Amino acid sequence: LRAQYEALAARNLQAAEDWYRARCARLHERAARSQEAVRASRREAGECRRQLQARLVEMESLRGAHQSLERQLQELEERHNAEAAGLQDTIGQLEDDLRNTKNEMARHLREYQDLLNVKMALDIEIAAYRKLLEGEENLFNMGSGGLPSLSSLPSPTYSFQPRSFSSST
């Protein structure tokens, strides 16, 4: 009986050892696969970390570029505003110059009108004196018909010396 138990125990022990070895082999195989999966996961996690770091560096770079562009935009706006203010000042000065020039032209036009009125009055006065002189000359020539020596005198010519007028308007 004892031999049967020992044989049965040896078979059971052998079966248990075979089962244990098979089980251990499967567990080792699973552990190896799991280790490979863990290594792959670690590699993937490492790659994700590298990508994350690269994205963070890129983000910081873009943030710096963004801030630089914002500063440039602000500087451009300030420069544009300064130029616009300068141009507004120039426009104001040009408008003042234009207004002054128009006033000066109006003053010159009034002076010209005054001078033209004086000239016309002088022309009328000269024409009146000319008529008077011609009439006197005709009377003189008619009245001295008996004096041949006077008729041989050359006819008088008149010259006009224009006066210069200045206007202080």
Topology:
Blueprint: H1 2-143, H2 148-151
Structure explained in plain terms:
One of its GO terms (biological process) is intermediate filament organization. Residues 59-118 form a coiled coil. The chain is rod-shaped, with a radius of gyration of 63 Å. The protein is built from two helices and no strands. The protein has helices at 2-143, 148-151. With 169 residues, the protein is mainly α. The N and C termini lie far apart (156 Å).
Tell me what portion of residues adopts beta-strand conformation.
under 5%
Largest sheet: none
Overall outline: rod-shaped
Structural class based on helices, strands and sheet pairing:
mainly alpha
Provide the succession of SSEs: HH
The Cα radius of gyration reads: 63 Å
Low-confidence stretches: 146-169
Mean pLDDT across all residues, rounded?
86
Number of strands: 0
Number of helices: 2
Report, as a whole number of angstroms, the end-to-end distance: 156 Å
Proportion in helices: over 70%
Coiled coil: 59-118
Keywords: Coiled coil, Intermediate filament
Domain IF rod: 1-140
GO biological process, one term: intermediate filament organization
